[in-house]
Amino acid sequence: MIAIFLKGGLLMSELYLMRHSQTLFNKLHRIQGASDSPLTKQGIEDAKKVGAYFKQQGLKFDHAYSSTQERACDTLEFITAQPYTRLKGLKEWNFGVFEGQSEQLNPKDDSKRHSYGDFFLQFGGESDLQVQKRMNDTLTAIMSKPDHERVLAVSHGGACFMFLQKWLSYTEIRQRVTDFHNCCILKFTFTDDNFSFVKAINVKNF
After folding, report:
1. Among this protein's residues, is 92 annotated catalytic?
2. Domain 13-99+109-205 architecture
3. Each residue of 3-36: pLDDT tens digit?
């Protein structure tokens, strides 16, 4: 158990929320969402670098979690041999009939919500707010468990971005998360059901 305390004796936990490694669809610029594709050679190498970074920094995790999607599970397994739990709540945004299609078909961002908004609902997918709610509900439930002082969770780009928007303004995200490529790690602290963004960690900077 890793006990971390704030001033005043309030218990604080740490969440390392990570985007999975590069996949074939990432490389081909295809919409991935609820569909899947294998990690590339670069993706495997980058995941191993993340594992080496955690060891170098002496970072040990009480628990590890992954999306149920293969690319996230594989990423986690290349990082660590630690047992982990798969959760559907950490899955990527479902893009409906656009799954597997070219990223050129993605709509423009909703100028107010700074995301795809409700666009994919009409095509059998999810809205941005649906993704945000299930990510926040899932991560809050994880971090509220006993003996969860430092947790690693591997998820996906769209899902992680919507979680970020729950806790940071779009302006803050642009200022503080300047590189959100595959294997980016978003560090948060958690206390009293609230997440606080700490920093983004990128494999290319190791």
Report:
1. yes
2. 3-Layer(aba) Sandwich (3.40)
3. 454 544 457 899 999 999 999 999 999 999 999 9
